[in-house]
TrEMBL record:
Keyword Nuclease applies: no
Domain AB hydrolase-1: 21-116, 175-238
Single GO MF annotation: hydrolase activity
Pfam families reported for this sequence: Abhydrolase_1 (PF00561)
Name of the protein in its database record: Putative hydrolase or acyltransferase of alpha/beta superfamily
Keyword flag tRNA-binding: no
Origin: domain of life: Bacteria
Transmembrane segments: none
Keywords of this entry: Acyltransferase, Hydrolase, Transferase
InterPro entries referenced in this protein's UniProt entry, alphabetically: AB_hydrolase_1, AB_hydrolase_fold
Amino acid sequence: MVHDIKKEGKFSYLEVGEGTPMIILHGLMGGLSNFNGVTEYFSKRGYKVLIPELPIYSMSLIKTNVKSFAKYLEQFIEFKQLDEVILLGNSLGGHIGLLHTKLYPQKVKALVITGSSGLYENAMGDGYPKRGDYEFIKKKSEDVFYDPKVATKEIVDEVFETVNDRNKLIKTLAIAKSAIRHNMAKDLPHMHTPTCIIWGKQDNVTPPNVAVEFHELLPDSDLYWIDECGHAPMMEHPNDFNDILEHWLQKRNF
């Protein structure tokens, strides 16, 4: 998929298709291309798919936190004059979607989370001191997936570059700490937005029990599993992911 990134004001984003707005939120180490399968599929089925580039490495350090990104998302929705959006987030993107939904519930028609932080995540662990070790970063990147081959050289190179850039590393650690601090366990029972939870059965970063806890705490949620799948179901099993999501959207009349 090759689509031009639009740059308007302070926003850079992809926009494909027409119809119900579906905003996709990428994770901390995840690029826009992680959602190629979702974008191609739903942009041809009555959805306007938008993927904003989150300012993960360009915000000031003091604003490098989950709440700032949730507010940035709200500014993007205002800028695009959208209403009743569907938010779809993976990993940190799921967390941003959850917090945005808590802060601005009137704007969000439905929420989709997959491998989301917000309750627990096992990030890079104690791996950062070995950031100069390419093989170590390669192994960490492969561990994100059930099938290590999904971690292409391009993906590994991007992670390696990120953790070896001092500014990006500091921002990455700040966001990771912010995600841990901003635990949403007490918020979730009060959030009544319909939520679709799609999880990899072999997710090592946000293990399956995290998905179960999200499902138990969110009052209006449905939980779906994808087997032989790690932390990024939309990358590892895009067809299964799209089938589950389309079924859920149809069931809920979205």
